[in-house]
Automatic annotation (TrEMBL), chain A:
This is propane 2-monooxygenase. Keywords: Monooxygenase, Oxidoreductase. InterPro entries: Ferritin-like_SF (IPR009078), Phenol_Hydrox (IPR003430), RNR-like (IPR012348), YHS_dom (IPR007029). The keyword Ribosomal protein does not apply. Residues 418-460 form the YHS domain. The keyword Oxidoreductase applies. Its EC number is 1.14.13.227. SUPFAM superfamilies: Ferritin-like. It catalyses: propane + NADH + O2 + H(+) = propan-2-ol + NAD(+) + H2O.
TrEMBL record, chain B:
The lineage of its organism: Bacteria, Bacillati, Actinomycetota, Actinomycetes, Micrococcales. It comes from the Bacteria. It comes from Janibacter alittae. InterPro entries: MOase_MmoB_DmpM, mOase_MmoB_DmpM_sf. This is MmoB/DmpM family protein. Pfam families: MmoB_DmpM. Belongs to the TmoD/XamoD family.
Length: 524, 99
């Protein structure tokens, strides 16, 4: 091989400024169509009623260019895979607080991984169909990010899947298992919107308004419970999220600034998608309060900090400038912060015989933590429920629901929520559309249904599908088989396969340190 | 840094950073350049808030790190934020509310 002649040391060429590079590598690469009309090239921009006068007014504060993007993303991946490897090689899973912690991960990885793929697809569509190079490039980067997130989540999951139950069939589970229809229906609702509504739904409502509630306490919880892979993929993904949040925020400001008439349309989308997203984050509420063996913060605290303080107190003051009001039904969400996690966990507890995770009644110590975190509601409304359940368990009758629940037509969560202001009465709303009755769980979901009944009447509701004979058969074992669940995936945690393995593994470790024999000390 | 002449109530802005050895100098630089900031810790994370505005200055980060640092590198450290990213240039990043 011939070596290239050594180059003379020259002065480093002066780089363009960030601003100039961004101009050159995004705007500078755009072109005007010459033999087709612009409306033919971008055919999907009109039907939602949004008016854009000047696409070049779009600002990307990150001023991201493809070379910088690849450089930093590669570095992030390098760091992440080093952690995953180290964890696998060092039997890191034994350093978790408890195997029951992984239930939080099963909910998260099963629910979220397929959504990342959906987001990847739709952002790729936006990258093709927006008429300005700025938003097109930002959407392209987000599309690549989302498929990277899906991949890193699969790698994280595979590390645990070798040793623990409930993670072997997440992709098919997502299409079939009842509770996973909650995140699935959210995303399919968003994917079947026009480009601008999708941007407000996912870019703004999900990524900016609620992403902190979804990811920050989750990753902090992973860190606190010894789950290094999740913490690292979480942080690696979340550093992309900060760009996604920016895209969402830029999107909304751009739409509001372009035309006065956009304001009302955007407000409607904020109202709808706040409530849709908020209902999905209910899964996180119960994770924080019930599924983490070592607690980080309560749902209530998290909601007050990330939503009430940062978003209502900060962001919506800014958006008021454009005439945007806080989301409709936000007062119901605030009132519910004392109740949400308890109600959702109670549902999951009763129906975990048909899920890819296990549940267990809270211990006395755990209940004391819940009492101090929820001084106004836990002892009054939820402790009695668990005390009763403790007696059931002592008598060999751990509670599993026998029937199938009524699902909300919009969020698809079993209707276990209560009336605003009355934690003792179940909330159930009815709406009639073309001679049929549809049920929803809250004012928020009812309002969403009545705004677009043609859309939500088509919902694929797992319970209805079971009754219609579309889910493997009428009996529980037939349905579980159709779900792709295996022995050990579902039910009660105590005594489960994971629990037994955990006790055995920890027992071995304890025995190793407690009584080192001479043979072991020699370490041959 | 701009003078604090805003007349509106000073709402907080904030940034959440991964707690790691690599990021410690970045966090120290933010502390130094934003004397009014408050720092709180949760497992794995550092949350920095300040009234109205947070600035991350390339020069200060380079001083703390003892090497060159591109502002793009902040993407490796940031987990989340609230406020608007008002400026992201070669020499500084500014998070502030617009209105």
């Amino acid at each position: 091989m011939t070596l290239a002649p050594e180059q003379k040391k020259t002065k480093k060429p002066k780089k363009l400024s960030m601003k100039a590079r961004y101009e050159a590598l995004t705007r500078g690469l755009d072109w005007e169509p010459s033999y087709v009309q612009k409306s033919e090239m971008f055919p999907h921009l009109d039907y939602e009623g949004i008016t854009i006068h000047d696409w070049s007014a779009w600002e990307d504060p990150f001023r991201l260019t493809i070379d910088a993007y690849c450089k930093y993303q590669a570095e992030k991946d390098k760091r992440l895979y080093a952690v995953l490897d180290g964890f696998a090689q060092g039997q890191g899973h034994l350093n978790l607080t408890d195997a029951s912690y992984l239930n939080a991960m099963k909910v998260f990885l099963g629910g979220v991984t397929p959504l990342e793929y959906g987001a990847h697809r739709h952002f790729a569509y936006l990258a093709r169909h927006f008429a300005g190079p700025g938003p097109r490039f930002a959407a392209l980067c987000q599309s690549i990010d989302e498929i990277r997130h899906m991949q890193t989540e699969i790698h994280t999951l595979s590390n645990y899947n070798k040793l623990y139950s409930g993670m072997h069939n997440w992709s098919e589970n997502h299409d079939r298992v009842w509770y996973l229809s909650v995140p699935k229906s959210f995303f399919e609702d968003a994917l079947s919107c026009g480009p601008f509504e999708f941007l407000i739904a996912v870019g703004f409502s999900f990524e900016y308004l609620l992403t902190n509630l979804l990811f920050v306490p989750f990753m902090s919880g992973a860190s606190f419970n010894g789950d290094l892979p999740t913490m690292t993929f979480g942080f690696s993904a979340q550093s992309d999220e900060s760009r996604h949040m920016t895209l969402g925020l830029e999107a909304i400001k751009f739409l509001l600034e372009q035309d006065e008439a956009n304001v009302e349309i955007v407000q409607g989308w904020i109202d709808k998608w706040f409530w849709r997203s908020y209902r999905v984050t209910a899964l996180v509420a119960q994770m924080l309060d019930y599924m983490l063996p070592r607690k980080v913060m309560s749902w209530k605290e998290s909601f007050e900090l990330y939503f009430e303080e940062q978003m209502l107190g900060g962001l919506f003051e800014d958006l008021a400038f454009y005439g945007i009001k806080p989301p409709r039904h936000v007062e119901d969400a605030i009132a519910e912060k004392e109740l949400l996690s308890h109600q959702v966990y109670w549902i999951l507890y009763q129906f975990s015989f048909a899920a890819s995770f296990t549940t267990s009644a809270p211990t006395d110590e755990h209940m004391d933590w819940l009492s101090q975190a929820y001084p106004d509601t836990f002892d009054k409304h939820y402790r009695p429920l668990w005390e009763k359940e403790k007696k059931n368990i002592a008598n060999g009758g751990r509670h599993f629901a026998r029937g199938l629940p009524q699902l909300c037509q919009v969020c698809q969560i079993p209707m276990g929520f209560t009336e605003p202001g009355d934690p003792t009465t179940l909330c159930q709303r009815e709406s009639e559309f073309e001679g049929e009755i549809y049920h929803t769980c809250s004012n928020g979901c009812q309002w969403i249904f009545e705004r677009e009944p043609e859309k939500y009447r088509q919902a694929w509701l797992p319970v209805h599908q079971i009754y219609q004979g579309n889910c493997g058969g009428p009996s529980v074992p037939e349905v579980l088989e159709w779900y792709g669940l295996k022995d050990g995936d579902a039910g009660e945690y105590l005594g489960s396969k994971d629990h037994q393995n955990w006790v055995a593994w920890q027992g071995e470790a304890a025995a190793d340190t407690a009584a080192p024999t001479n043979e072991k000390k020699a370490g041959a | 840094m701009s003078d604090q002449t805003e007349t509106k109530a000073a709402r907080d802005v904030g940034v959440v950073i991964q707690e790691s050895e690599n990021n410690r100098p970045v966090i120290e630089a933010i502390e130094q350049d934003n004397p009014a900031c408050t720092i709180s810790h949760s497992p794995g994370l550092v949350r920095i808030t300040a009234p109205q505005r947070i600035v991350i200055t390339q020069e200060t980060v380079e001083e703390k790190l003892g090497r060159e640092w591109e502002t793009h590198e902040f993407q490796m450290a940031i987990v989340s934020y609230f406020g608007n990213i008002q400026e992201w240039d070669d020499d500084e990043i500014v998070i502030a509310w617009d209105h």
